[in-house]
Amino acid sequence: MSELRIDLDAFAANLARIRAVVAPAEHMLVVKDDAYAQGVERIVQRAWQEGVHWFGAYEVGNATRVRGVLGSDARVFVWMLRGVDDVRRAVAARLDLGIGTEQLLEDVASAVADDDVAVRVHLKIDTGLHRNGVRPERWSAFVTRAAELERAGRIEVVGVWSHIAEASDVEDDDARAVFDAAVATARAAGLAVPLRHLAASAAAFARPEFRYDMVRVGAFAYGVRPAGGPGDDALGITPVASLVAQVADADDETVRLDLGSAGGLPSILRGAEIVTPGGRRVVHDITLRDMTVDGWPGAQPGDEVVVFGASGVSATDLAERIDTIGEEILLRVSPRIPRRYT
Ligand SMILES: *Cc1c(COP(=O)(O)O)cnc(C)c1O
């Protein structure tokens, strides 16, 4: 049967590589989308063993899974809060909350009981991506209000953060100038701002001045290189997940594999090359339940073929054929495909 094989030692090596590159900045491991489809429980367990203390969960449900596995010492950051119920759950789970609107700041303040400990918040400035975050012209009033709530013991402002496009250096530089100004304004308003975080994988590696106190790195931890960017060797990372299919039947000309588009493989990948025991072979067709590839001598039912992963063809290699990114290929792998950890 086909499966997604996850090499936790390769994951640990990527974590060590990230730490070496970004130090002294801290690494927040981003684990959204069930840890990029690799299974949040096992991933955060291993990361914790390897010394990662910060986890970027995206939403509250995922964050409470991290909390459940790692207990109260882990720092778990969420930045997607949908309404007051979500805020209450986040406060109860002692999460670090990313706050990108004035309304959310008020919702958090009112979710804290008088005798409660202050809720840890990270204030988000919109540095140009317009994906949530407080606009620069409203930032001064926002941080003034946050300082007031901090003095009242309702919140503890642990950081200022934002997200950048990582598409062009010029735009990212503009975003960074807005970010620096926002931190200065927050400090002038009486906030200490011990943690500043701005970069994801690409900027964390390529642009030292974007690392500040912490970087939020997901993709590179899982060994997913950027489409159209530097290769795995240049980055010093290796793919963690390998999608393995089995030969269902074979003749001299074609081999049929037990994995198709319902397993998550985009059918427009026909024409791509995958790695078989006989070397690279072209994919002829992908149907709902299976795929056919050029045969190789001695192919037998039960033989394993690596569709993407540590074999030499990565998720990003496939993604580039269809103008998408490696994460997209990974996230399409059906939850019904078993995950196996080695
Ligand atoms: C997904 C995400 C990241 C991680 O991005 P990678 O490119 O996978 O490292 C960081 N920050 C935010 C806000 C994100 O949504």
Descriptive account of the structure:
With 342 residues, this protein is α/β, with parallel strands linked by helices. Helices cover 35% and strands 24% of the residues. The protein is built from twelve helices and 16 strands. It has helices at residues 8-22, 32-37, 40-49, 60-70, 83-92, 102-111, 136-151, 169-188, 201-206, 232-235, 315-321, 326-331, and strands at 3-6, 26-30, 54-59, 75-80, 96-99, 119-124, 155-161, 195-197, 214-217, 241-250, 254-257, 273-276, 279-286, 291-294, 304-308, 339-341. The strands form two sheets. Strands 1, 10, 11, 12, 13, 14, 15 and 16 form an eight-stranded mixed sheet that branches. The longest helix has 20 residues, at 169-188. It is elongated, with a radius of gyration of 22 Å. The two termini are 17 Å apart. The mean pLDDT is 95. The site of pyridoxal-5'-phosphate has 10 residues, from strand 9.
